[in-house]
Amino acid sequence: MSGISTYYTRMAGNNRDIDTLIIGQGLAGSILAWQLMQHGQSVLVVNQEYATSASRVAAGLFNPVTGQRFVLQAKAEAIIPAARRLYSQLEKQFRQTLFFAKPMLRIIRNEKELAAIQERKTDPAYADYLGDTVQNKLLNAPLGAIEQRQTGYLDTNALLDCLKSCFVEQHIYITTQLDYSDITVTESGISWNDLNAKRIIFCEGYVGRNNPWFNWLPFQPAKGEILTLRSNSILPDQIINGGRWLLPVHDGNYKTGATYDHDLSSTKPTEHAKLELVDAMQQLLTDKPDYEVMDHQSGVRPNTLDKNPFIGFHPEQHQVGIFNGFGSKGSMLIPWYADEFVKHITCGTDMPAEADISRVK
Ligand SMILES: Cc1cc2nc3c(=O)[nH]c(=O)nc-3n(C[C@H](O)[C@H](O)[C@H](O)COP(=O)(O)OP(=O)(O)OC[C@H]3O[C@@H](n4cnc5c(N)ncnc54)[C@H](O)[C@@H]3O)c2cc1C
Known about the structure:
By secondary structure, the protein is of the alpha+beta class. The chain has two domains: 2-57 and 157-218 and 306-359, FAD/NAD(P)-binding domain; 102-150 and 220-301, D-Amino Acid Oxidase, subunit A, domain 2 (D-Amino Acid Oxidase, Chain A, domain 2, 2-Layer Sandwich), CATH 3.30.9. The protein contains eight helices and 21 strands. The strands form four sheets. Strands 1, 2, 11, 12, 13, 14, 20 and 21 form an eight-stranded mixed β-sheet that branches. An eight-stranded mixed β-sheet has the order 8-9-7-16-17-18-15-19, with helices on both faces. It starts with a helix and ends in a 14-residue tail after the last helix.
């Protein structure tokens, strides 16, 4: 409660009426808040970071063509430019590199994948995303690897830190765990501890599955573990993807990951996953590199049953909204869906059907 009173004493003009109360400062809440502010909306962001917060653990990989069948992200032609535009705008604003463009070499693991690639290469829709098939002697890839384009990674922690300091500076950030029972839904909006907002939008990541307004949505959270390594061996400069991946990051370290597990009985890092990740990393390479594990983290992805986000307002309480369900692709998807949601809120445009929660019956 002390955070809230500090907020009140610092608010300009002691104004307790705002447009949008946002719960959660992962990638979803941060980017939505920022986009709303760009449209002149007033926001307040409430966040209590928990150890498994996906955005703080994520590698931030950006990869438009995924899976064994090399499927191009739906609406890639809109989604990718929107993400690149936003990250470059934030880089200018905060004078810091946030997005690192980096080619990816996708190891061809079997004849089936080879056939899928050959088919995709004849499809003009893939021309911007798939390059040549290459041989790289550092890679354990008897069938070669294919270059993937428009790939890279977002430094998620840097982005969250920049936006958090911006929110803190503007006195629109409170560190606290929101208790659902403190929210009163009124005719004109919601109220929370003397604060009035036109709406509340929950951006809670996987814990959103317990939210009393939205616990009917079919979340399918997936735990993931990831390692940060230091190595003196000569390793590829590109992102290497062979199911598991190896990512050279800008501080000279490498990240490798990630496990994928629907069992959430423990959300902590496990020795078993660490061994599995080291083994998988070694399998990507011709020679076993020397390495030291610098960090081992786990988080929970807010995945959904149909693999599409959950966006929209509660069917009866239209002041209560959700912006969630970005699964394993938050860094690529969130900017475009935030744009669409902001347009829906400010101009009344329709939400993209695949993400609109009204699809769930
Ligand atoms: C191991 C791993 C690797 C990943 N790798 C990638 C990748 O390479 N590329 C990619 O695009 N995505 C990746 N992801 C997925 C990505 O992390 C998510 O898509 C994205 O971060 C989801 O962001 P979010 O804001 O919805 O959720 P979160 O990051 O979980 O944020 C939710 C926030 O809300 C807060 N919160 C929740 N409830 C409350 C409450 N009641 N009161 C106050 N605060 C609350 C939480 O504490 C948290 O800070 C990975 C995820 C994991 C776990």
